[in-house]
Amino acid sequence: xxxxxxxxxxRPYAPACDRNREPILDVLREVLPASGRVLEIGSGTGxxxxxxxxxxxxxxxxxxxxxxxxxxxxxWIDDAGENCLDPVVVNLLSDDLQLxxxxxxxxxxxxxxxxxxGAVNLFAAANECLAPNAPLxxxxxxxxxxxxxxxxxVEFDEWLKARDSQSGIRSFEQICELASRxxxxxxxxxxxxxxxxxxxxxxxx
Length: 205
What we know:
- The chain has six helices and eleven strands.
- By secondary structure, it is of the alpha/beta class.
- It has one domain: Rossmann fold (3-Layer(aba) Sandwich).
- The strands form three sheets. Strands 5-4-3-6-7-11-10 form a seven-stranded mixed sheet, with helices on both faces. A two-stranded antiparallel sheet has the order 1-2. A two-stranded parallel sheet has the order 8-9.
- The longest helix has 17 residues, at 15-31.
- It is globular, with a radius of gyration of 16 Å.
């Protein structure tokens, strides 16, 4: 949940972004290409786009989100690298989702917010916009068939569904099946802080 940045009371701020950016950065350093364009889906407040673009000066960083969130993302531009582009509109629930061409795609804390159709649309569009062997990185909580959902994520899932019955913590197995149907293979499943995971998929050659 975002609120106003205490250091700049006019721009949106999510404390979780400050807590998870370093662990996510460790993953991105392993999987992002040396050059090219990274498309970030669901940039939210814009904090991750600002931070990661500054950390990867040789990559072009393209933030995206719903139209109402773009002004907030732009308010973080002073903290971003010069390689951070102006955010573009991406609605995962669009009937005909098309994404800009990219050399990597990341999606942080988004798939449990949108309806399942958003995940379906994301993988289909990613198959069209990414080159062979390009990474698709997902970050967030997931439920696994072979173990119970963590108590904190049980509460989070209940909160998500109370605010929107179409949202909720997604099944790891269903995400992997969806990825496979669209030409992606899982290359990494890493435990992250606060019962989150980083899932890295690669588009088939």
